[in-house]
# Entry
Amino acid sequence: MIKKLLSASRPKTLPASIGPVAMGLAIAYFQTGVVDKTIALMTLLCSMLLQVSTNLINDYYDGIRGIDGEDRIGPKRETATGGLSRQTVKSAFITTLLCSFFIGLYLMYIGGPTIIAIGLSSILFAFIYTGGPIPLAYYGLGELMAFIFFGPIAVYGTYYLQTLRFDLAPIILGFAPGLISAAIMAINNLRDRATDSKTKKVTLAILLGEKKARALVLLFVMLSSFIPFLDIVYFSRKPLVICASFTIYLFLKTWKAVAQDKVDEKFNNHLASTGKYLFLFGLVYAITLTI
# Structure
């Protein structure tokens, strides 16, 4: 059962929660010269738990609504295939949400009203992304939610917990992981476009069609690589952060495949590679900003 729960939690998506935290910590360290390690660890754990919760909620609600059938080309979903009982998956996402909430209480105490607003909205949207009566992912909002919560909100929230002050820089720089997270979501929806179109789920990939959906992924990725230029030009940070922009070239095979290859099970690898790009981008940015 543990192995199946791990499968349902989709650990390959965790770079979406780690990358922006690394960037937020780096920006805070660049400005203050210190990082509170306890707060940093709690921030990372809370972010990862929210990511896992979102994945488990997605597995559960897509399963009970008949979204993930046997004909999907993505990794099998445990609820839909009966690998795990509905109650087991439901208990798992309730547990992870509660854990993120209790860790969040500590962070809310540290960060006050700003982090209370960020924390509670993050928990709420982790649930209503695919849960509740109006699941946002079913109305073409998946990419937007990924951009907001794994981009500007995650980077700024991490930064604020370390500094307790407002700054526009982490919000703008948070566009980079946000755009890459949106690309991850767009690849996921492109892969599932054919099967999702048979259900009540409506995604941008369905609305745009295959050709434009491919272009959307590449647009998100390309735009993300320009954010370090904004950092240098508008926020006068170290020119070395431009190295983060060049990580995009390490995944040229992935971008080429997304642009022209047949949409099949290989898109699972492209999704994972985009997650690696997000992680590497955030790591390189953090290192080059703080050395």
Observations:
- The chain has a mean pLDDT of 93.
- The chain has one domain: 2-290.
- The radius of gyration is 18 Å.
